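Here is the promised in-class demo. Please do not try to memorize the tokens; focus on the logic of going from shape to residues.
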């Protein structure tokens, strides 16, 4: 899988405020610490409308080459978050915690071994482990 971290800023020096992260086929552009655009297979680049400052507006222009046409294609926060959840977040979801029954099945043998060893210890016959 291709993984890269790039500065998409169009200045002579890197500021660290214009970062693009590529993880395989997913690309996410940040302005400072905020995700402002992303691209996934089968979808054109999704760019957030400028809801911040002139500087972030400049960053957005660097991403989509802002023209009157591309500016019209930018999406508001609600739409951006909706598309993010559908197309990006699914790749980064935390795994579901085990269900109670699964926890018991995993932990029970460990406790069984501890109790067996403790019982043996008190009876003068410790088993392996403790």
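The designed amino acids, position by position:
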């Amino acid at each position: 899988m291709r993984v890269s971290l790039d500065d998409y800023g169009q200045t002579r020096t890197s500021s660290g405020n214009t970062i693009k992260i590529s993880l395989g086929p997913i690309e996410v552009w940040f302005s400072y610490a905020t995700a402002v655009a992303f691209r996934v297979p089968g979808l054109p680049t999704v760019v957030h409308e400028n809801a911040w400052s002139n500087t972030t507006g400049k960053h957005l222009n660097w991403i989509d080459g802002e023209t009157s046409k591309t500016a019209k294609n930018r999406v508001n926060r609600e739409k951006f978050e909706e598309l993010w959840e559908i197309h990006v977040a699914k790749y980064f979801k935390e795994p579901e915690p085990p269900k109670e029954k699964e926890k018991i099945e995993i932990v029970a043998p460990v406790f069984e071994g501890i109790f067996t060893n403790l019982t043996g210890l008190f009876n003068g016959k410790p088993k392996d482990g403790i």
